[in-house]
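Quick one: sequence plus pyridoxal-5'-phosphate SMILES, need structure tokens.
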Amino acid sequence: MAHINENFLKLTAGYLFPEIARRVEAFAKSHPELASRIVRCGIGDVTEPLPSAIIAALHRGVDQMAQRETFHGYGPPTGHAFVRAAIAEGDFQSRGLDIADDEIFLSDGSKPDASAVLEILGAVTIAVTDPVYPVYVDTNVMAGNTGAALEGGGYAGIHYLTTGPENGFTAEPPTQPVDVAYLCSPNNPTGTVATREQLQRWVAWARDCEAIILFDAAYESFIRDEALPRSIYEISGARECAMEFRSFSKSGGFTGLRCGYTVVPKSLHGRTRGGKKIALHGLWSRRWSTCSNGVSYPVQCAAAALYQEDGRAQCRALVDGYLANARSLRQSCARLGLRCFGGENAPYVWVACPPGVSSWEAFDTLLSRVQLVVTPGAGFGRAGEGYFRVSAFNSRANVEEAGRRLAALTQAAVS
Ligand SMILES: *Cc1c(COP(=O)(O)O)cnc(C)c1O
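Reply:
Sure thing.
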């Protein structure tokens, strides 16, 4: 008899996006004349095609695979040296940050990395923010690091750090020690960004209780304010307490191509039950060489092109376009009298529903009145209730259309 991992049975149904799809489909069915008017500002997926410099690099990689002399079979499991060097130089060394080439681990994306990291950690207690990117929570449920699902949302055994308007939707460190804390900045879903002072408090806390910070910087390229930290390693002492996840999904439009990387400093340690200090770098290397053969060669060529002049400029323009969308969507919501957060150094605007209106009520109203699809905040945790997320990942034309429709609404109509 093969026994299953019963932790999977604790997972509450993947409710949010299937439920959105169900409601949108039901609306389209009952209002066929409006179905083609639906504008989706709900998803966290990019919409614009890959920049030409990336496509050219991808083609070059494919052509090399066609010739005996330039063909590539298995590569190093953690990425070709030319890509790791380009990343270490482009994202860290050129900014004065002390990260070596061999502390960069290339992968097929941050979601798989955020999940795989639990393989090199023992049973841990975790802290997450509420609202939260659900991957951090669900992977810990699967790994057995939590208790059962709680009535009204969340899981027993997780330390939830509630964020709200009072703390600008960025969490302060917990008052009790936990083993691992997940931070996402710029944040999905709230679009807010942690300041340098806040991250300094986090690093001080983690060093004090020997916790590990898992820093998700998937939206780093959306930061335009020079005063805001783009990497946890801008904070002195972070090399001893933090791993950082980076993804080319949102910065380069790679959601369908699949590539990202994780930084594991050699000075980051965990302990055995017996108290012996062990470097995570060696464990992560071993995990990769045992479990994976790395990222496909043409995709690595495309990733390296992100660090060359053309690729860099084109991706910056791509992100600039999404940032302009975010600004415009935030203005449209603010003009309705709704309180808005984020959307300035991030692709998400986090909007407070009018008093007394729930996330799903606001969702239904926007769908039925103006055929606009947003993401109900309640889907990201208890503290997301009373908010909705508007995604800037859309074409300019759709964002302008969304703006016109919102302008036709009044705040009263959202209630
Ligand atoms: C989109 C996103 C990622 C990127 O995941 P990939 O697997 O690299 O596509 C990571 N973290 C957050 C919070 C995200 O929203």
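The pocket of pyridoxal-5'-phosphate is lined by residues 44, 109-111, 133, 184, 188, 216, 218, 247, 249-250, 255, 260 (CB under 6 Å). The longest strand covers residues 242-247.
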